[in-house]
Specification:
This protein is of the alpha/beta class. The chain has two domains: 30 residues; 136 residues, Glutaredoxin (3-Layer(aba) Sandwich), CATH 3.40.30.10. Helix content is 43%, strand content 19%. The protein has five helices and seven strands, in the order H-E-E-E-H-E-H-E-H-E-E-H. The protein has a five-stranded mixed sheet. A two-stranded antiparallel sheet has the order 1-2. The radius of gyration is 22 Å and the shape is elongated. It starts with a helix and ends with a helix. 28% of the residues are buried.
Amino acid sequence: MSQTSLWTRLVPIAVFLVIAGFFAYGLSRDPSKIPTEMIDRPLPDFELPGLRDDEGVISDEVLRGQTSLVNVFGSWCVACLQEHPTLMRLAASTDVKIVGVNWRDDRQDALTWLQRHGDPYERIIFDADSELAIELGVTGAPETFVVDPNGRIRFKQVGPITEKVFKDTITPILKAIEAESNE
């Protein structure tokens, strides 16, 4: 067998193995764990209008001094409706500050949605043009960021917050932030 015919048989096998390796790697990754470059970085500076008439302009300063959940939602978002009862319970039963980012929405649709389903948010940033969402690297709604009292993003939850996600994932992060501030 000549050198050339040996290589013509081995090259397709090698290419197949490389492609199979990429597929195996991709299939082994959890699609709900989308990495973000924002972890342990400061929240981007922003000044955007509030959703409600009485909120005026809201800036990143609203997220300083207290740990907050920054929840990206929209009235058009089916999964946001799934997580909404959990947010309502958190707002009623915990001292966690919840700030909403109403994303790619019509102002009146959002206000009607909140009136119908309840409003767990202390403040709501109106981000119709995705200015803040782009800075945060939002890929879809709902997404929630845990922001520490210094304005640093500590965690990003992609998808709905359920009771289990809050208990098993977010609560330990909140406790770690609290322990750091007590040191």
